Structure formats: structure tokens, C-alpha cells
Amino acid sequence: MLLIKQKPDSIGAIASTLCLIHCIATPLIFIVQSSSMTCCNGVPAWWGSIDYLFLIISFFAIYHSTQTTSKNWIKTSLWLSFLSLTTIIVNEKNAWFYLDEKLIYVPTIALIVLHLYNKKYGQCGLHKSFIKSE
């Protein structure tokens, strides 16, 4: 948790990249699995729960990034991307309505780009809790 507070954009970019790899790898793993055996068609529980782990890490990374960013549009974009990603993942688990599976890449890539941009251009330099009131 301390690392997320110190380097939220780095952790956010890494978590989003791992999430993207997870999303890309899932179909490939199931293709290999289906060609090697025919007994198991479902997603292993541990593999499906990784989605929620990435959401939790992303939430805290975004929360701490928005505390130190100097650009309001970054705050809005990070939260909108996170809400989009959360909606897509929860919908995928519950099948409320049809969404193309490829749609998950849009908020995931947006989070990566936004975290990297914020890391380079958006930091105000001091965390709000370090600023002394006069």
C-alpha cells in the first residue's frame, strides 16, 4: 500500500499493462486448453478473480494519482476509464447485456496511457498532505 501512495502512476501503469496481458492471454489459454483436453470448459476460479485484483489495485493507484495530479482532465479521464473498465468486467461476469469482448481494451489502454502521461507531465511535485498551511 505504501508503494501505491509513493508511485501511484507507476503502479497504475504496471497494473493496467498486466491487466491488458491478462485480457490478451485468456483467449489463447482457452484455445490451448480446449485443444489439449475436453473435460473443462469453464474459467478457473483463480483466473477469473484476477480481474477483481486488478480493479482493486487500479482503484488505489487512480485514487492516489488524482491526489497529486495538477491536471483536472487527467482526474476525470482516469476515473471515467476506471468506471468503464469496472462496468465491462462486472457485465462480463453477470452477462447483463451484450458487449463485444474487445471493448475491454479501450479503458485498459486508456489507463496505461493516462498513468504514463500523468507520471511525466501531470505531477504537481508535492502531495497535498505535505503542503503546510500558513
Number of strands: 0
| Number of H/I helices | 5
How many domains would you count in the coordinates? Answer: 1
Q: Span from first to last CA?
A: 30 Å
Low-confidence stretches: 126-134
Helix-strand topology string = HHHHH
From the alpha-carbon coordinates, what is the Rg to the nearest angstrom? Answer: 17 Å
Q: Please, what is the average pLDDT?
A: 77
- Strand residue content: under 5%
Q: Indicate the overall shape.
A: elongated
Give the helix/strand class.
mainly alpha
Helix content: over 70%
Main sheet? none
State the main characteristics.
single chain; 134 residues; mainly alpha; disordered C terminus
Question: What's the SSE blueprint?
Answer:
Elements: H1 2-6, H2 8-36, H3 45-68, H4 72-94, H5 105-122
Helix pairs in contact: 2-3, 2-5, 3-4, 4-5
Can I get a quick summary?
This protein is mainly alpha-helical. It has one domain (9-128). The protein is built from 5 helices and no strands.
Description:
With 134 residues, the protein is mostly helical. It has one domain. The protein is 74% helix and 0% strand. The protein has five helices and no strands. It is elongated. The two termini are 30 Å apart. The relative contact order is 0.17. The C terminus is likely disordered.
